[in-house]
Write a structure and sequence with these properties.
The protein is built from three helices and no strands. With about 60 residues, it is an all-alpha fold.
Length: about 60
């Protein structure tokens, strides 16, 4: 008595579904990047420079040591 293997019965289906999942992850990554870029371009608070603090962030003497 011979039966067909699970690979024969479901192999193509598994491969097709895996490919569709890979494509969906790629599309989701692209959409996430587009959303991030839109948020960054729409936020004016992040684009303005920080207020001056009155002193340099790195002392000039630290460079020459």
């Amino acid at each position: 008595m011979s039966t067909k293997s699970r690979e024969y019965l479901f192999g193509t289906t598994v491969r097709v579904l895996a490919e569709r999942a890979r494509d969906a992850r790629k599309d989701a990554d692209i959409l996430a990047c587009q959303a991030w870029n839109a948020r960054m371009l729409g936020s004016e608070a992040l684009l303005s420079p920080p207020p001056p603090s009155g002193r340099p962030s790195m002392p000039a003497t630290a460079i020459w040591r």
